[in-house]
Amino acid sequence: MHEIELPLKVIIGMDVLKRLPSLIKKLNLGNDLLVLTGPHVYEIIGKDVISLLVDSHYEVQYQIVRTSTLNEVRQIEEIVKEIKPSIMIAVGGGKVIDVTKYTSYLTHIPFVSVPTAASHDGIASPVASIKLDDGRPGSFFTKPPIMVVADVSVISKAPKRLTASGCGDVIGKITAVRDARLARVIKGEYVGDYALSLALMSAKLVMRNASLIAKGSPEGIRVLLEALISCGTAMAIAGSSKPCSGSEHLFSHALDLIAPRPALHGEQVGVGTIMMSYLHGLKWKRIRGFLKQVGAPINAKELGIEPEYIIRALTIAHKMRKRYTILGESGLTWKAAEALARETEVIE
After folding, report:
1. Mind giving me the DSSP string for 153-210?
2. Shared-domain flag, residues 80 and 95
3. How confident is the model over 69-93, as pLDDT tens digits?
4. What are the pLDDT digits (tens) for 273-325?
5. First vs last Cα of the chain: how many Å apart?
6. Cβ neighbours of residue 136 closer than 8 Å, sequence gap 6 or more
7. Quick one: which of 2, 33, 51, 306 has the most CB atoms within 10 Å?
8. What is the span of the domain harbouring residue 103?
9. Other CB atoms closer than 10 Å to residue 323's CB: what's the count?
10. pTM for this structure?
11. CATH of the domain at 34
């Protein structure tokens, strides 16, 4: 038995950010707000959100989030304990939402997710990705936001690279679901079919709407947002990130650890999905074609990562988390990893 916690409200649409003050009021949790945002996002929209809330007679303080690390979480946690806000509001991308999410969990202060890009599946999920003190990637199962306010008009203006990254994160569910089902057969690990089906449906929906997403149209962005939020729901229902994070994510985590300049999370997951779908015997060329269509990287060169790091990441990916995947318990040898990367044209 596990308890399923989901956001009370999810609002997606054009210009819905204007409704944020009234939506917060309906939560009936208080008027003292702490807005967390990134340095770049603050200049573009964060300060406008703060002004909107101040004009609506909320007591607002704000804090800039610069990294998604445990140290950053500790600093924000101390600030939260000192000022005791009623609600925290995360305005930004993955780093901001993840830090807010974990801090919310530690301090028992609810938070509202206001994504400014459709670049990741953490928008509504209970999982926070935080870098540990030793530099390794950490994944914490916390609680989802109490509310999500996703303004399509704002998110449509985000750099196309971020949207393409979101596509890479969603397409990774194809191999993540395969990995979860494999672990169920080999290791007896249980993940419910409903959660797996929801994650897989999200990936298929995004693939079917590739042309709309590639154009950056509001319709395409809305489809991608709904898919990313559905992935968060799948994780909440499963009580773990397994429906949405498999061997493709392990590969990305390995790159984060060893590459001098890692690419965006979703970009790495997308390339990882190409290779892991090959191992699963899936139509990897179709996945590569989708990623290319939406403008996401499909090889090491486009990721800006040297081939040797791709190969090394493949050989250590199985060690990133205690999670059984197509990589098995002993992982890939250097020779097998190099052959995989070359066969899928990730390296030349």
Report:
1. HHHTTS-HHHHHHHHHHHHTHHHHHHHHHHHHHHH-----HHHHHHHHHHHHHHHHTH
2. yes
3. 999 999 999 999 999 999 999 999 9
4. 999 999 999 999 999 999 999 999 999 999 999 999 999 999 999 999 999 99
5. 48
6. 253, 257, 320
7. 33
8. 9-155
9. 22
10. 0.94
11. 3.40.50.1970
